[in-house]
């Protein structure tokens, strides 16, 4: 189990926000401020201090350790192609990498190295912050950044479709990347130089996250911060509740201590009662209570009578009488139409007519022995004329109609209705006779008058409705609260009267009412400040949760697991290999001793100078030495972890002196004997050092790829190495490759075309002679792109003869004659050399180089 796997396994039972810190550190290589803020937000959600969202769900997911597990496959990278929307990289290029040796990808600034290195840093494993990948800003594309990456894992080829947001590929993550950002992760910017072995930097980042959360919690929990100042409460149940709030309280408890409206209304009554108890005798108070009771009793009866006479029962009774009357009237109308049909007068049989008929009957029957109605031949009591047979018959029919039972029932129903209507109309709704009683009850209940007058208005409307010929289907219930308020008022009077049953009860009653008033007053304060009290309860609950979170901000467990990992499997092997790597870089100016140190959960290797007055390496080591130390750390981890997969170095010697560039070149070429080493650089001197070391170290192989750019595209792959970095032998090989082009111009071109081509050829040939002098004759004592004179190489100079000087002079003179570099007279360059002469001049330098390389001994 690797350190990272052990850390991830250990942290499974730790707080979610701890796990998220490790996840972000693994993903990003470091915890920037935005990540620390996200971790803090996660901690708040975990403890219920912030509303939960998708971030908490993401934080709960299993941590991806791809690339950090024990190496299963030996992975090399074979090619990168089909690049889409990565800077200005051309999509039709194939960057093919040899699977062994050291491969140098060379290019000037803007040639596309950064684009390829960003792909590799995302796809492979690089410590530190992963660089951002941008598309082509000059030709924006909505396509996602992607590339096709071909690798070999244990000899088996795999083609991987990589996208910027794709899941990590375990095989690709086996490949390690080193650049300036990685170097900063190894070499701290503290006063003491140290680095965090792979995996342990996760614990250091975790400590950083814990410290950040702890600071945020401390700031959030400053005493008094977030609490609302409340008024002073008394020594009552509600007062004690409000004065001793804590996280143990619940928000719904506040409602239990809020005064009701009736309690608040009673405050004035209690104050008056307390005033009376202090100023009057019990006998006086009892007398006043009885007077009040007598005063409100008529008001109560007035309200009860009105409500009982105009209640829903009365409504249903009137509705029943009205229905009965209408039904009987309908039957009477049918009889009337049958008996009184075809009469010359309208409304015969109506109520007015019946009144007239009854009056006539009473007149005749009371004044004589005559019968009613009159018979034929008798005089009509109304018109005083003789009644004929037809009229007598009609009068007889009228009498039958009047005497019919149906007509009698209609009259009875009408009488019943009229009686009820008369009673209702007599109801008096004027409350002015009870004004003093209304005011008295109103003093105890502020809503009483409003409710009473509302009830009287409803009763007035109901009175009008009850007397209508057509009633509504239903009526709303009347508000019974005025009567209930009076009952309550009377009940309180009776209770108060009972409390004053003896003079001795007055003192105790005074004490109880004072306590009751204080309780209600505190309950009113609770109501007035309910929102602030709830805020304080919430704040105390939050402070409790912050306290739990603060307890999690303890780095001791981190220190323990750190020490355990270091003790078991990391520090000792890394110390061993680290010392070996430092020796390879030749740290002989001072003696560096690696020492382990622990600090707040972080375990670092501290480099100390064992002799001298200054122990801190950071104050003594140069930039080049520090870069070599970072590379030593990087390689020591690879060796300690027994990794064999490829490594990629992006500008490993940027801005370093030639001395340290040479040492880095040698070490990386040595490393290429164990694994595939890919180096991206724009430093031609470093390129040269790598080439020279590859030639000098037995078994090493050197591969070169050049990147160029066009006006719109970068990353254009060229197989030709940079001319300036080539050795004499390599330059001769390059010149041989130029011969077919010269032959083609000689066959198919003009004489001027051949002259121009010859200019270029002899220019390059001249530079090859110069490189021969530098390499073979002067043994690189002085070199181009070198920043010093290598005097230690003087002892290995080749013995020069006059013939050597003559051969060099002839070759250089010939080139100086024909290369395009001076504004010479035309006759000087004529006649121009033939193609055969050019080949002969090339063979001359090739033979001389072979002789110096193989047959001549150095002194």
Features:
9% strand, four-stranded antiparallel beta sheet, alpha/beta, seven-stranded mixed beta sheet, 14 strands, 859 residues, single chain, elongated
Radius of gyration: 57 Å
Count the helices. How many? Answer: 28
What is the typical, i.e. mean, pLDDT?
A: 82
Low-confidence stretches: 189-195
Which range best describes the helical content: under 10%, 10-25%, 25-40%, 40-55%, 55-70% or over 70%? 55-70%
Number of strands: 14
Biggest sheet layout:
7 strands, mixed
Category from helices, strands and their pairing: alpha/beta
The backbone outline, from C-alpha atoms, is elongated
Spatially, the strands of the biggest sheet line up as 4-7-11-12-3-13-14
Topology summary:
Blueprint: H1 3-10, H2 16-28, H3 33-46, H4 54-60, E1 75-84, E2 94-96, E3 102-106, H5 113-123, E4 125-126, E5 146-153, E6 156-163, E7 176-178, H6 180-186, E8 194-195, H7 200-220, H8 237-243, H9 253-256, H10 261-279, H11 282-309, H12 312-339, H13 351-367, H14 389-403, H15 405-426, H16 435-444, H17 448-466, H18 481-499, H19 505-528, H20 530-552, H21 556-584, E9 592-599, E10 602-609, H22 623-640, E11 647-650, H23 658-671, E12 677-681, H24 684-696, E13 702-708, E14 716-718, H25 728-748, H26 751-777, H27 802-818, H28 835-855
Parallel strand pairs: 3-12, 3-13, 4-7, 7-11, 11-12
Antiparallel strand pairs: 1-2, 1-5, 5-6, 8-10, 9-10, 13-14
Helix pairs in contact: 1-21, 2-3, 2-4, 2-7, 3-7, 6-22, 7-20, 7-21, 8-19, 10-19, 11-16, 11-18, 12-15, 21-22, 22-23, 23-24, 25-26, 25-28, 26-27, 26-28
Coiled coil: 403-430
Keywords: Coiled coil
Pfam family, one: AAA_13
